[in-house]
From TrEMBL, chain A:
Keywords: Periplasm, Signal, Transport
Family indicated by similarity: Belongs to the bacterial solute-binding protein 1 family.
UniProt-annotated location(s): Periplasm
Name recorded for this polypeptide: Thiamine-binding periplasmic protein
Top-level taxon in the UniProt lineage: Bacteria
InterPro entries given in the database record: SBP, ThiB, ThiB-like
Signal peptide feature range: 1-19
MF term (GO), any: thiamine pyrophosphate binding
SUPFAM superfamilies with a match to the protein in the record: Periplasmic binding protein-like II
Automatic annotation (TrEMBL), chain B:
Source organism: Gemmobacter fulvus
Coiled coil: none
Protein name, per record: ABC transporter permease subunit
GO CC, alphabetical: plasma membrane
The keyword DNA damage is assigned to this record: no
InterPro entries: MetI-like (IPR000515), MetI-like_sf (IPR035906)
């Protein structure tokens, strides 16, 4: 008779212990949670101070993440969504699922941040990456006039592709279709996602690839290869700002706030540059990792506001398709 | 397995299959949402999708016939290895296959460097030509294996009769080989067409631009950026209808030859000498060269990465193999049941399109629908393994079905009455007639579906938990994190695992058979 009693007692204690460890569910994209991404290190650091259990759920990339939020709707278990970018935040806000973050961190972005619902955690400039041996064009027009070959991503299936679409729109407005038409003969191909495009570039299929000004830092720091650099464009380079948001229905609202604040603390921000290969949203006291000082710095930053980007997307997409389908 | 068990089992399987493929589609369609209509661009995408799939199927099968014939009638050292190697391209993760092809045919590939050395202008792989080339690379070997099965199933007695009647190669072709091809080719064409219909990354990467937009991409866009689920479902229905039309078309041309059975005496096909011998040698050499060159490129790219594989690779490999070992027998068993029912019972022709349904389905819509079905009740990550096994089995079933169906038809036409006369029924029939006589296609089907399960990214992406990622997902994650070398190494490991699984099952199937 003793052992069942013991078992019952043990179970009761165990369930209390379990109940005492709150779980924070973070919905994010694939490369964030992989062992070489920032996820594991941030999880460990935050768990050490929060007395909680952080559970990451991965869903493809930024766009897949938004679709996942919409699929799960109000029934979602997620407390925090991390990994949308500004081209997607308007659609995310329209779901009505997100709550205001209520934080005022001292951000180090090239432009002022005013979004009440989403907090940036890292950012980068889109840029065409190339080998240093190449004399790179300094604008879209120069690129279009050259015989240089580029590989880009499809804006219908990838966030960098959508970023490029917004870049041309932000720089050229109504002239955008003409720019796309002029670029058509430079485009080797359009890939479904970033990794295919970057792979094609590394295989020598194109002279330049749409990526980030921070991409050469990976090759420099992780591979000790300083042969890559990125092109600064006169029109300005478009920004990708990666953001996180708290779900209104979260049952761990305070913990979610603490987590978002933690992601913007030095401990997490120092992890991001060499795992996500982007600039930290809030400059850590120790500064940027060695090697980042070699990266090119665009003089001008372009970014459409969330609503502007959402409003421009369908039209810009149709222009893009029409100009390149010919 | 009583007399009615096969039809009943097949009926249940068909219902389950229909529910698993159409159910998620219906769920997606019923989700409230914007409900955008089909645009002119979507229709253009449908036109392009069907055109490229039809061209790819015709080209793959046209290339496969002479290769299969040459492999069937010639004997040379390494022939078995060559036949086994035909499984390899089909098992490659798509982006790995594309990079392998580009190493040969790309802008800085071997061919263009050769042309450059000769002072000739470069040729571009990007465009419809490249799409068809890649699909031929991926699917011609599969078609070759399917057609080779046909040649291997020709009874020796027929060849003896032809010999005693003094048939030349031309007459043998007309009276023996042509009817066999008529039986086998529609199925092979259909299989390749259906695969290419839902091909996504190959078409996009090699298509060269938005002109090469497929229905699958339009579905992707509708789900991810527009969250217009009804539109995604409508597009998926268009895709299913296109495949359904192809199934009907293929059905019109498929006429079982029904010459009667042989006694399993091994009689080799005649091996005409002279220019025909040269032609066969050329067909084999060209096909193997075309397949081997990109594969070797994949191998060379992957070797350095094998030395430094991240630790995530090993549990992922185990996860992939678990899925394969569970899904392959499920798929092959269900396919056998459907094929038997179709061959035995008349008036069951409706089973054939049902068995082909999963091929036409969009895996994104399927995954989304299942997600919507599961999510309200249980965390998707917790049911990742069973869902993955089930979906992988469903997706692989049409391939197993296409491999088994022609052989089951012949078996039933040849031995069905004898078995009936001997009252060989139920398990006895399965054990003494069906399994031994179908060992070769069963082994091939098991190997193929198992290998496909290892290499399939499929719907797992939507269900993947923090841990428990499959190997294709890890390859994709490595590529997405600049780790190109490690990704190439992991991809090589993936190919090796898939191929080993394929080879073991295929070897089991061929073991004891004369070919």
């Amino acid at each position: 008779m003793k052992s069942p009693m013991f078992a019952a007692g043990f179970l009761a204690v165990a369930s209390v212990a379990q109940a005492e460890t709150p779980v924070l569910n973070v919905l994010t994209y694939d490369s964030f949670v992989s062992e070489w991404g920032p996820g594991p290190a941030i999880e460990k650091a935050f768990e050490a101070e929060c007395g909680c259990d952080v559970v990451f759920t991965a869903a493809g990339d930024g766009a897949a993440l938004l679709a996942r939020v919409q699929l799960e709707g109000a029934k979602t278990d997620a407390d925090v969504v991390l990994g949308l970018d500004t081209n997607l935040t308007a659609a995310a806000r329209a779901t009505g699922l997100f709550a205001a973050h209520g934080q005022t961190p001292d951000l180090a972005l090239p432009l002022a941040w005013t979004d009440a619902d989403f907090l940036p955690y890292d950012w980068g400039w889109f840029a065409f990456v190339h080998n240093k041996t190449l004399t790179a064009p300094t604008s879209f027009k120069a690129l279009a006039e050259s015989d240089l070959k580029i590989v880009i991503q499809d804006p219908r299936s990838s966030t960098p592709g959508l970023g490029l679409l917004m870049w041309v729109k932000a720089a050229y407005g109504d002239e955008a279709p003409a720019i796309w038409a002029a670029l058509a003969d430079n485009i080797v191909t359009v890939t479904p996602g970033w990794s295919e495009a970057y792979g094609l570039f590394l295989e020598g299929e194109a002279d330049l690839v749409l990526s980030y000004t921070t991409s050469p830092a990976y090759h420099l720091i992780a591979e000790e290869d300083d042969s890559k650099t990125a092109a600064v464009f006169e029109e300005g380079n478009y920004l990708q700002v990666e953001v996180m948001g708290k779900l209104a229905a979260s049952d761990q609202s305070d913990l979610a706030d603490r987590f978002m604040a933690f992601v913007l603390s030095d401990a997490a921000q120092e992890i991001l540059p060499t795992t996500n290969w982007m600039y930290p949203a809030k400059l850590p006291t120790a500064g940027l990792p060695k090697g980042f000082e070699t990266l090119v710095q665009p003089g001008k930053s372009l970014l459409l506001g969330a609503d502007e980007a959402e409003a421009a997307r369908a039209g810009a997409l149709e222009e893009w398709r029409a100009a390149l389908s010919r | 397995m009583a007399r009615r068990a096969v039809p009943l089992g097949a009926f249940a399987t068909a219902i389950g299959l229909g529910a698993l493929t159409l159910g998620p589609l219906a769920v997606v369609m019923m989700q409230a949402g914007g409900g955008g209509g089909i645009t002119a661009a979507d229709l253009a995408a449908l036109r392009f999708t069907v055109t490229q799939a039809a061209l790819s199927a015709l080209a793959s099968v046209a290339c496969a016939v002479p290769v299969a014939r040459a492999l069937a009638r010639r004997r040379f050292p390494g022939r078995r290895l060559a036949i086994a190697a035909l499984g390899a391209p089909f098992l490659l993760p798509v982006i790995v296959a594309v990079l392998g092809l580009l190493a040969i045919f790309g802008r800085s590939g071997l061919i263009n460097r050769g042309l450059e050395a000769l002072g000739l202008p470069e040729v571009s792989i990007y465009g419809m030509g490249g799409v068809v080339l890649a699909h031929v690379f991926l699917n011609m070997p599969l078609a070759t294996r399917m057609i080779l099965q046909g040649w291997q199933a020709v009874p020796g007695e027929r060849l003896r009769l032809a010999e005693s009647l003094g048939f030349g190669p031309g007459a043998i072709f007309r009276h023996i080989e042509a009817p066999m091809l008529r039986d086998v080719l529609p199925g092979a064409l259909l299989a390749v067409f259906a695969i290419c219909l839902t091909s996504f990354a190959v078409v996009l990467v090699l298509g060269g631009g938005p002109g090469a937009t497929t229905v699958e991409l339009a579905i992707y866009q509708a789900v991810r950026f527009e969250f217009d689920l009804p539109k995604a479902a409508t597009l998926a229905v268009m895709q299913v209808l296109a495949c359904g039309a192809a199934v009907l078309l293929a059905g019109l041309f498929t006429v079982p030859s029904g010459f009667g059975a042989g006694l399993d005496r091994a009689v080799a096909l005649p091996r005409p000498a002279g220019w025909r011998r040269l032609l066969d040698a050329a067909a084999i050499a060209l096909a193997l060269g075309f397949i081997a060159a990109p594969l070797l490129a994949v191998g060379f790219r992957g070797l350095p990465g094998l030395m430094a594989l991240p630790s995530a690779v090993w549990p992922a490999l185990a996860a992939s193999l678990t899925v394969a070992v569970l899904a392959a027998p499920l798929a092959v068993g269900a396919a056998l049941l459907l094929a038997l029912a179709l061959a035995v019972a008349r008036g069951w022709r409706g089973l054939e399109p049902v068995a082909m349904l999963p091929m036409a389905g969009s895996s994104l819509v399927l995954g989304t629908g299942l997600f919507l079905l599961v999510f309200p009740f249980v965390s998707p990550a917790r049911v990742a393994l069973p869902v993955t096994v089930l979906v992988t089995a469903v997706m692989a079933l049409p391939f197993a079905f296409r491999i088994l169906l022609p052989e089951v038809r012949v078996l039933m036409a040849d031995y069905g009455r004898l078995a009936d006369a001997l009252a060989l029924r139920g398990w006895a029939r399965l054990r003494w007639l069906i399994l031994p006589r179908l060992r070769r296609p069963l082994g091939f089907a098991l190997g193929l579906t198992g290998a496909m399960a290892v290499g399939d990214l499929g719907v797992i992406a939507l269900f993947a938990a923090e841990k428990g990622a499959t190997l294709p997902l890890v390859v994709q994650r490595l590529m997405g994190a600049y780790r190109t070398e490690a990704a190439a190494g992991a991809a090589l490991l993936l190919v090796a695992a898939a191929f080993a699984l394929f080879w073991i099952c295929d070897w089991w199937g061929r073991h004891g058979s004369d070919t």
